[in-house]
Specification:
By secondary structure, the protein is an alpha/beta fold. The protein has helices spanning 6-17, 23-39, 92-105, 128-137, 147-150, 156-173, and strands spanning 44-51, 58-65, 78-84, 109-114, 141-145. Strand 3, helix 3 (92-105) and strand 4 form a beta-alpha-beta unit.
Length: 176
């Protein structure tokens, strides 16, 4: 079982929180952090910053999952990741734009890495949660991972199990 470097996670989190840096640099740090976590999982490959030929949209991280790691077998073989290193929760508009990217690419699952969560009430399905709920009804799954959750991860098994649990919560209870 691969262990994550606490120093590397702390370094990337610190860069992501450094207000003296540009928004792009801070966002890139969150993307780098999530790629670091994903790439330690056996059978997972990533690609960053995929831009369509018309320059109409960018995909932060594209992921191929060979489904060899124990908890990753329930995660689709292809999925996309959108990273938002915002000071506030990610709003419904940004979540809706990510869902549209999933549809345009024909991908059934996405992970929204939202440093400070998403807007709305999960129990009442308001704001961004409503967008995710509507996407699920149309066969697309979006799970949300926050920075607070990321900084607690010590190894690949914890991370892949977190992703698996999010999928189960999404399917069984409509939680994201």
């Amino acid at each position: 079982m691969a262990v994550y470097s606490k120093e590397e996670i702390s370094r990337l989190v610190a860069v992501g929180k450094d207000k003296s840096l540009t928004t792009k640099e801070r966002g890139d740090a969150l993307e780098s952090l999530f790629r670091y976590l994903l790439e330690k999982i056996p059978g997972v490959l990533t690609r960053s910053n995929g831009i369509d030929p018309f320059r109409g949209s960018e995909i932060d991280i594209s992921v191929a999952n060979a489904q060899t790691a124990m908890w990753m077998k329930v995660i689709p073989s292809l999925f996309l990741v959108e990273c938002k290193n915002w000071d506030n929760p990610v709003d419904a508009k940004a979540v809706g734009a990510f869902i549209l990217k999933l549809r345009e690419k024909g991908v059934s699952m996405g992970i929204m890495v939202a440093a400070n969560g998403i807007t709305g009430d999960q129990d009442q399905l308001t704001a961004a949660y409503m967008k995710i709920n509507m996407a699920q009804q149309e066969g697309q799954r979006v799970i949300v991972v926050t920075l607070d959750e990321i900084v607690t991860l010590k190894n690949v098994e914890q991370f892949s199990k977190l992703l698996c649990e999010r999928i189960l919560e999404c399917v069984a209870a409509g939680r994201f």
